[in-house]
């Protein structure tokens, strides 16, 4: 590889990074004009933690008769990602409506950098949501019981899950540009994948019909992996739970791959 080729690639990479930073910055600046979006992402998991962990926690028996707030905290944290699907999809759909996507496609920039920049901007909002929900969890009684590195690794897994859900939102916004449809589908995904999982209820307490669904739900794999890293209580049974790290990696990689490919293809051809 010649020196000139290396320099061209370095300039292309630097240009792509600048484009991604610009698009991500624009996404974050929109948050100042519409702070309600951030409130919605944060309040949903906090309400769940307060309702289930604080108000009803005394009437629910967690695995091993442990603190129920510690059991459900990982599930509540995953709702930051699930609750962010709809706002991300709506933002993409509005960009299509306003003609912004057409203007972006007319510029001499990589189409991939536009979607990646938007996704990273939404990831930053999701990480802020993690920080606020974690503070609420600490106030309500959640505590990790492992070393700092494992605790950080747990939050890293949560951040990767949120990033995967961001791409789900981008895909929905490109596939269904009708806002009512997006809100219905996004809300359904958030409810089903959240409560048909082991995030709030131990699988042995579920009806036999839905137990396999909950055990193989990707959210359950992520929740189980995070609980293990934090040393929080859980009831582990079945292949998906006993091999949570493997299922978590495979499922999140599949979500990112599928949504990324579909989103890139739709972005090239989408017209409002």
UniProtKB/TrEMBL annotation:
Keyword field: Antibiotic resistance, Cell membrane, Membrane, Transmembrane, Transmembrane helix, Transport
Span of the signal peptide: none
Main location: membrane
Ranges of residues in domain ABC transmembrane type-2: 36-267
Location relative to the cell: Cell membrane; Membrane
Stored Pfam families: ABC2_membrane
Record field: transmembrane: 36-56, 71-94, 115-140, 152-175, 182-201, 239-262
Highest taxon, organism lineage: Bacteria
Entry membrane topology: Multi-pass membrane protein
Cross-referenced InterPro entries: ABC2_TM, ABC2_TM_bact-type, ABC_2_transport, Nod_factor_ABC_transporter
Family the entry assigns: Belongs to the ABC-2 integral membrane protein family.
PANTHER family in UniProt: NODULATION PROTEIN J (PTHR43229:SF2)
The name this protein goes by in its record: Transport permease protein
Lineage: Bacteria, Bacillati, Actinomycetota, Actinomycetes, Kitasatosporales
């Amino acid at each position: 590889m010649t020196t000139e080729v290396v320099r061209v690639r370095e300039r292309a990479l630097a240009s792509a990074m600048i484009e991604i930073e610009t698009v991500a910055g624009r996404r974050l600046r929109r948050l100042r004009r519409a702070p309600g979006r951030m409130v919605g992402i944060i309040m949903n998991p906090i309400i769940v933690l307060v309702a289930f962990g604080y108000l009803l926690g005394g009437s629910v028996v967690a695995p091993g008769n442990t603190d129920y707030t510690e059991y459900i905290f990982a599930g509540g944290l995953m709702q930051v990602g699930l609750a962010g699907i709809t706002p991300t999809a709506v933002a993409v759909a509005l960009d299509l409506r306003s003609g912004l996507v057409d203007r972006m496609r007319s510029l001499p920039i990589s189409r991939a950098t536009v979607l990646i920049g938007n996704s990273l901007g939404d990831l930053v909002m999701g990480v802020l949501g993690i920080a606020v929900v974690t503070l609420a969890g600490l106030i309500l009684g959640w505590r990790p019981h492992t070393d700092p590195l494992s605790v950080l690794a747990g939050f890293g897994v949560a951040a990767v899950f949120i990033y995967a859900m961001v791409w789900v939102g981008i895909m929905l916004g490109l596939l269904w540009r009708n806002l009512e449809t997006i809100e219905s589908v996004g809300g359904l995904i958030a409810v089903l994948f959240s409560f048909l999982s082991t995030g709030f209820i131990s699988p042995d307490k579920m009806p036999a019909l839905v137990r396999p669904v909950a055990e193989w739900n990707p959210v359950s794999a992520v929740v189980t992996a995070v609980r293990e890293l934090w040393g929080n209580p859980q009831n582990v049974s079945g292949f998906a739970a006993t091999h949570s790290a493997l299922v978590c990696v495979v499922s999140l990689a599949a979500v990112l791959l599928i949504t990324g490919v579909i989103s890139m293809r739709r972005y090239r051809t989408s017209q409002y």
